[in-house]
Amino acid sequence: MSDPKNKVKLFESQQVRTKWDAESEKWWFSVVDIVAVLTEQPDYTKARKYWSVLKTRLKKEGSQLATNCSQLKMTAADGKQYLTDVADTEQILRLIQSIPSKKAEPFKLWLAKVGNERIDETIDPELTIDRAIQSYRRLGYSENWINQRIKSIEVRKTLTDEWDKSGVKQGKEYADLTDLMSQTWSGMTTREYKQHKGLKKENLRDNMTNTELVLNMLSEVAATDISIVKNPKGFAESAKVAREGAKTARAARDQL
User: Fold this and answer.
1) The whole model's pTM is what?
2) C-alpha span between 18 and 219 (Å, rounded)
3) Tens-of-pLDDT digits for all 256 residues of the chain?
4) Residues 6 or more apart from 54 whose CB is under 8 A from it?
5) Apex CA 189: angle with CA 202 and CA 235, to 5°?
6) Nearest-5° angle of CA 30, CA 31, CA 37?
7) What is the number of other CB atoms lying within 10 angstroms of the CB of residue 192?
8) Domain boundaries, the chain
């Protein structure tokens, strides 16, 4: 389909309808299509019936998956659009665990492996950095870029520690300050920056050049240093500090 926000993806030989929600930055997947793939059921009516029975069972088990599923209009085989049960990535991964299927087994093994890794990282946080470095190497990043990226994680953590100390709340206030700083030094909010680079779910910093990483780090280092001196209280005062720090990176960018 021509609309990039409403695509049909192929899972082996079967189609899975998807829709990208730019507001929430989430992919939504047709639940019935996923069920059809995992159960190897080419008959859409039978796949829909399977999902109906599964929803009832999940509710009896106390699962919120069926309750929390949303509905979006998606194009059916007849070319018309109908409201369709959809789920995001997290919900689909939960759904996979409830379907006995040879096709689902590799996903289940992967989920178990990831869960074990996360437990290990909780016990030894250094493993998180080690795994990140190995992942970047597999993706072909240069050692110089990897060093910059790992340093940027440390710089970001120092800044968010300052925000915590100032009473800034995690979540929306963190995101608002990050957007403010990005807008100040680059001229784009985080979302606009991702759109500029053609990204969706991908991490923006993982797609920055060395220069962009350095400028972003400069804005965060400067904001951290200013915060230590001025000791802001609350979001409004922290926003002034964040803008002031980002102006340092803007000046460096303009000079470049």
Assistant:
1) 0.65
2) 37
3) 334 444 544 455 568 888 888 777 888 999 999 999 888 888 888 999 999 999 888 888 888 887 778 888 988 887 888 899 999 988 988 888 888 888 888 888 877 887 888 788 778 777 888 888 998 999 899 999 999 999 999 999 999 999 999 999 999 999 999 999 999 999 999 999 999 999 988 899 999 999 999 999 999 999 999 999 999 999 999 999 999 999 999 999 999 8
4) 35, 66, 98, 99
5) 110
6) 95
7) 14
8) 8-101, 150-255
CB burial of residue 5 (10 Å; 0-12, 13-18, 19+):
exposed
Measured distance CA(119)–CA(103) in Å, rounded: 26
Amino acid at 29: F
